């Protein structure tokens, strides 16, 4: 591809083999028309969407076994789209979203690479309401709380797009901002269950990874 290079990566999720196109390394950068810059994506951040991160793999594993029957699902910060692809393969009603200008073509390429239909995609900025997106029974994300203001921004997305009865599932590699996000969702009527998970083969108990599962039953929820 002009301006940056890619490679294919293979992995297994729930016994199913996946192939993914990812950026060849974290030094890649290409923004010839300044689109990413206008979105506030710096050259240092540009390549982050195109990597297979441990938290993203953990989210995909969770989606392989999650109860999705009758649920409309939104993935935030989908990047290369592995969790949404797993949901698509399972027949879920899923929309993937990101703000990176290359997330959509990478998602489409990875769907084709795995003989799947294109996943529905919407470009979504967390600080810009998008009423046409609608509401969801389940909102998912991986490692999205690495900056201080992201807890409040993510809670705002939940306000706008979660049904009164809804679930939110976030995989997090032990970042401190997850505690603030949990408090914000508690104030919105969500209960939380936390599961400690290994982030990679070198991770030892007590594991640094967290699978944060928030549930709101709906009655009396705001």
What does this structure look like?
- This is SAM-dependent methyltransferase.
- It comes from Pseudoxanthomonas daejeonensis.
- One of its GO terms (molecular function) is methyltransferase activity.
- Keywords: Methyltransferase, Transferase.
- This protein is α/β, with parallel strands linked by helices and 222 residues long.
- The chain has one domain (50-216): Rossmann fold, CATH 3.40.50.
- It contains 7 helices and 9 strands; from the N terminus they run E-E-H-H-H-E-H-E-H-E-E-H-E-H-E-E.
- The protein has a 7-stranded mixed sheet, sandwiched between helices. The chain has a two-stranded antiparallel sheet with strand order 1-2.
- The protein starts with 5 loop residues before the first strand and ends in a 6-residue tail after the last strand.
- The relative contact order is 0.13.
- The mean pLDDT is 92.
Count the DSSP helices. 7
Class derived from helix and strand content:
alpha/beta
Amount of helix: 25-40%
Average predicted local confidence, pLDDT: 92
Overall CATH architecture: 3-Layer(aba) Sandwich
Radius of gyration: 17 Å
Instruction: Please name the fourth-level CATH homologous superfamily.
Output: Vaccinia Virus protein VP39
């Amino acid at each position: 591809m002009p301006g940056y290079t890619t490679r294919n990566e293979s992995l297994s999720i729930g016994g199913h083999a996946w192939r993914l196109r990812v950026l060849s390394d974290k030094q890649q950068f290409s923004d010839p028309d300044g689109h990413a810059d206008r979105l506030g994506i710096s050259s240092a951040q540009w390549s982050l969407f195109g990597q297979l991160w441990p938290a993203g793999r953990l989210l995909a594993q969770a989606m392989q076994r999650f109860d999705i029957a009758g649920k409309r699902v939104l993935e935030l910060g989908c990047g290369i789209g592995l969790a949404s692809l797993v949901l698509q393969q399972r027949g879920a009603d899923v929309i993937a979203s990101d703000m990176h200008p290359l997330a959509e073509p990478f998602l489409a390429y990875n769907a084709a690479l795995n003989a799947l239909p294109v996943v529905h995609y919407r470009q979504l900025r967390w600080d810009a309401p998008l009423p046409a997106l609608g509401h969801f029974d389940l909102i998912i994300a991986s490692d999205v709380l690495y900056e201080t203001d992201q807890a409040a921004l993510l809670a705002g997305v939940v306000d706008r797009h979660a049904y009164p009865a809804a679930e939110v599932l976030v995989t997090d590699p032990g970042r401190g901002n997850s505690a603030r996000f949990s408090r914000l969702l508690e104030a919105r009527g969500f209960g939380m269950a936390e599961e400690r998970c290994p982030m990679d083969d070198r991770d030892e108990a007590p594991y640094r990874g967290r699978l944060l599962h928030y549930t709101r039953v709906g009655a009396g929820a705001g």
